[in-house]
Known about the structure:
The structure holds 4 protein chains of 4 kinds. By secondary structure, chain B is an alpha+beta fold. Chain B is built from 10 helices and 12 strands. Chain B has helices at 3-27, 41-74, 90-119, 228-238, 250-261, 275-292, 323-331, 341-345, 347-350, 358-369, and strands at residues 128-135, 138-143, 148-151, 153-157, 162-168, 173-177, 181-186, 192-196, 202-208, 220-226, 313-314, 319-320. Chain C has 2 domains: 1-30 and 577-630, no CATH class; 31-576, Cytochrome C Oxidase, Chain A (Up-down Bundle), CATH 1.20.210.10. Chain C is mainly alpha-helical. In chain C, helix 3 (73-107) runs parallel beside helix 5 and helix 7 packs antiparallel against helix 10. In chain D, 60% of the residues lie in helices and 0% in strands. By secondary structure, chain D is an all-alpha fold. The N and C termini of chain D lie far apart (50 Å). In chain D, helix 4 (68-90) packs antiparallel against helix 5 (98-117). Chains A and C meet through helix 1 and helix 5 of A and helix 4, helix 5, helix 6 and helix 7 of C.
Amino acid sequence: MSTNVTIQHGEEINNSTGVSAKKLLMWTFLGSDVMFFGTFIATFMAYRNKSLVGPYPEDTLNIPITSVSTFVLLMSSLGIVLALHYLKEARMGLAKFWLLMVIIMGIGFIGFQIYEFSHFANMGMTPQVNLFGSTFFTLTSLHGAHVSLGILWLIFLLINEYRGNLNSENAIDLEIAGLYWHFVDIVWIVIFALLYLITANDGVPPGGIPWIGGH
Amino acid sequence: MTKKKLKQIFFPLINSFLFIFFISCGFGFDSPLSTFDAQGPVAQLQKDLFLFVFWLAVIVFFLVEGAILYASYKYRQKDEKLPAQIHGNTKLELMWTVLPSIIIVIIAVPTVMGIWKTQVMPDEENSLIVDSIGHQWWFEFRYPQEELITANELHIPVNKDVIVNIESQDVIHSFWIPKIAGKIDMVPNHQNKLWIKADNPGIYYGQCAEFCGIAHALMKFRVIVHTKEDFEKWKNDMRTPPVALNPGSEEDEGRKLFIGNCSMCHTHDSYKKAAYHKEIQNQNIRWEEWKKDKEYSAIVSAPNLTHFGDRLTIGAGLKENNLETLSSWIENPDNIKIGTRMKNHAAIYNSEDQFLTSNEIDQIAKYLLSLKPDKVNVITYTNNN
Amino acid sequence: MSTISKPKQFQLPRIFPRPKSHKGLWYWLATVDHKKIGTMYGLVAFFWFLVGGIEALLIRLQLGQAESSILSPEVYNQMFTMHGTTMVFLVVMPLSAAFFNWIVPLQIGARDVAFPRLNALSLWVFIFGSILMNISWFVGGAPNGGWFGYPPNSSLGFNPGHGITYWVMGLNILGVASIAAGLNFIVTIINMRAPGMHMMRMPVFTWMTLITSVLIVLALPILAVAGIQLTADRIYGTNFFNSEAGGDPIFWQHIFWLFGHPEVYILILPAMGIVSEVLPTFSRKPLFGYTAIVFAGLVIGFLGWFVWSHHMFTVGLGPAANTAFTVTTMLIAIPTGVKIFNWISTLWGGSIKLNTSMLFSIGFIAMFTIGGLSGVTHAASPSDTQQQDTYYVVAHFHYVLFGGSIFAIFSGIYYWWPKFTGWLLDEKLGKISFILMFIGFNLQFGPMHWVGLNGMPRRIYTYAEDMGWEGSNLAATIGGFIIAVSVLVFLANVILSKRNKQNSGGDPWDARTLEWSISSPPPHYNFVEIPKVNNIDDWWYRKYPELLEGNNQNFKKQKIEVEDSSNVDESKIHLPDLSYYPLIIGIGLTIAGLGVMYTYALVAIGLIMVFWGSIGWSTEPVNEDSKEHH
Amino acid sequence: MDWWALNYGGNMSLLKDLFFYQGNKWWKIPETTELSENPKNEHPFGGFLEKAKNILLILSSGKGHAGPVYYWIIAAILGIITLIEVWWFTVPELRYMLAPAMLIFSIIKFALVVAFFMHLRFDHKMFSTIFITCMVVGILFFSVFLLLSAFHGLGT
Lengths: 215, 385, 630, 156
């Protein structure tokens, strides 16, 4: 028998297939998260046009503002892919710059969301008021929670980058954080299409009471 | 392994099978809720389909279990030699993929036909339409064509298609008359339809089958299947005022107490003209009131008590309707059914100055039992349970 | 996260020193060894098995005779809710997880799972989640909405108090544990196989673990969403299932059974895996149709996603939907049948050693067949409208989950016990416990078929004398107590066998798979050398090499001893060190869950603990002494 | 049919390709480092799914590479698609096509991010397998679910 002693370091690339276990874990987790967001999106679609009282999407949603925040999140995806690229090439200055940009853009996105939520709340749209509110707020706030978690993770990695712990050798750590970040981005792509663009013109559904609170 | 040990193991197994078989056969299928005593075309179809699948399953059962027992006995370890090492057999695999598929097709065809036969509603024009609304923990029945309303006792004519529109006001219940048709759930915000038809006059048991809270076990009703003439009589009765009371009699005292303490929730005069729509409106108002304040609302939706004296049971099919059980119910509904809204909301149970004396309870009970249609128009209920 | 050790690696200041000793409570709290974690899963789950069993006995006592009043209706509702929830989430799933943890790394020739600390996290989150759910008994009443928790009955308006909230909160936390474990096992099985162990050389138990893990990872998020929605409804006043605001109660049923049906296969597939290991070992011939069994498992795993509405045949989805789900449900019978026939063929022509483990496995096939056949009668949806929510359904799924899962789990316990401990369980007591359990089980659940068809609905706390259900219920109650006796006999067996330890050696059964190629109990690094795999049942063919040359006549067992781990230089084997951060995250999550119900201060404390745990986790080196390698 | 035979040969069995073959193709769970011949086993499903496998392979194969320039181009495309989406939304005449158009645009954006930013196109094919399996199960599943919600009670 060959002296094939695989020395194992727990959570490192320690396997017989040559595939990074961490990356495999992240992809499997993303597959699982697909079902998580899928259920919320399905809830939203199933309850579309089922609210009995206002405010309805056409009374509340503000597409221009959300478009800007969508664009910010999209571009943060570019940022992290560049950060990873430069990290792999050991160009640390650019790597740090882009990672910082991603964090700023992420915080910007959360800022937009906080603004949006408080704006809605001032208008009288809360999770308690109708089905649209319930489904909209749970979906967007859980997405926001994912983004916030991602921001914390990236800040942690940025600190490591400054301390010299994150370098081209262990770029895999940034790569899996990047996978997570991209996933949050593609979820937002779907949310932006379904929750905002497609439903934004939905008015009073059959059997619903028109909303009288103004903008 | 010696034969003695084998005996130790296998005989108990076989014995336990036989034991279970025999005791189970001894139990029979004579419950008033038995699904085997089909009394209508829907239940009959469901029973036939079940038995068809069942007997197929019995054949498979004996083949498979026989094979297991045979193999474990025949091929028990006799020596230390290794048996022939067989990895598989493609032909066999194909066989036992294809054979079950064929059996599945054989089962699927009558099943799918049965689904469409039982779940597609008959022509509305020629059917009696009944709206059934589930409440915690009683059933309301409305006859929109006849503008009649009653509770916990569903009267239908024999041999006529009946479409039951099924709804619920609070939680999910299920409407089930095993001898006439399989169940369908009563779901808030959804209107389900059930087609029933009874072959023979008689009294059948109904039961809520979806867990609906503390008194779920006690949520029952009766289905009274009349001959055509009897059903006409019943409809007439429901439009006839009750027997007049002698002023000053115990019943009359009871009437006053009833009006003072019970009538805000219990309507008992739906024999009047246009009472049907008013009662629906009132039930909705009561329901809204209760929703607003589930703990302390003064009124709650409650069963209609028109011609209560003619009812067979009290407490949604729980006890026979007589003076004793009725007094016990009025004294404290918890005696018969736990958790009722009557007990939780009615002032006579909650504020001390309004507690009833046992005399008053008797008077109310007597009054309620006197609520019978004026004309003596006896319908014979044949109970074939 | 950053785990590669550097000399100037940032480390969180430690409040507690990192445990070093491999003894004592502190070691068990901080262990990342898959075997220790498996043991803890097993012990905790078995404790809940006893609790759930007592709940079942109380239910049976109450129903033993008509109109009895041993339990109040309120307590009865709590009993059956917690019995169902406990048995599904706190017993069968974690007992399966115990086997996954113990057996899978050994079967694929690995030193540990892919993420040992994540594994410890799953364990602690499970333990604290299960405790959280059961706290509800002591703070104003356990959940009472049934294990399915249908709103509106489980919504705040109809069910005030904290019971149901504890239930959803507990399910959410248990879901985290299950998903983490599922992810871990997927990565472990795909990535940690020993050289030469192809997917189609993996033992069937490992295959079924993989399929189960995939189902867990995909199904549990759906339950999490349902849980979040119901929690939000109950605590924040949202409208998901609020019928007064247009919310749809049917919607919960969809989401719940979207999760719930794959869940059924999560419960039964590990059992099928166990049986597929036990049968060939004690028949002393290979599993018949290995490929077919694996593929049948895959097909069941896939089809299981598209049958959920057969739990909803009576909610009025309409004949079109009912037809579709009737057909898909019936299709599942085909791969299930393939498995049963293959198991019987494995017995056929073998040299069967009828010991306790084998008896439980044969019992599994026999009982599971009954459950499967009654399942076909359910699939016929017109007649199912008569059976839905009656005791016939109770009988059906107990034949699948007790006669199936629990029998297989006992089979696995007797089979792998020598691997866990190094000593054998007593066969005589084992057989007594099997016979008692077999009789008790059939006596309890057999008559339920009859009484269900005779119209007895589920979840009723009482029934009238004139219903004709008393005989069957009395028999069922007696059966329940016989099962209880058999469990006691099992416990006695463990205690007595421990007293007069009968040393088992590494390979007491002349078994087939890799876990038997090492000493019992295995050393903490499992394999001295990572094995090289050449065949499906590699250990078997190492013992009987002539079989590979097509010699089917005169077998000779080659003298191969299990690996000797007495003279091993352990300094060359690097395993992850102990870590208490998983425990901290587990406690933090539970505190946060409690806080959601009571006060945000607790949520903050919980989240701080989770945050502290994760930072500590990601900055601590996996092993302290591995620094010089980088 | 030449290209078929050229690219994918004629003598592969699906099982072998799925599970025994070492390489980095689509729909493949990676192999362990050392290989040896599998003993003869019965494969009841051997062979007849070959055509289906070939179609899958052809549909899913592809090569390419990416660097910063590519990333910028992809980002530009993503930005432009977002602009088109918002523009489409503001034009009342196009509103009747809104839902399908938005779905198509978001699928394109989704695919671009997954394929290039998340490197799925260049990475180990197993990752694609896992992610696409989850997506397929999820989409099928939730479509059925939405159909059931939309057509509750159909046929009664």
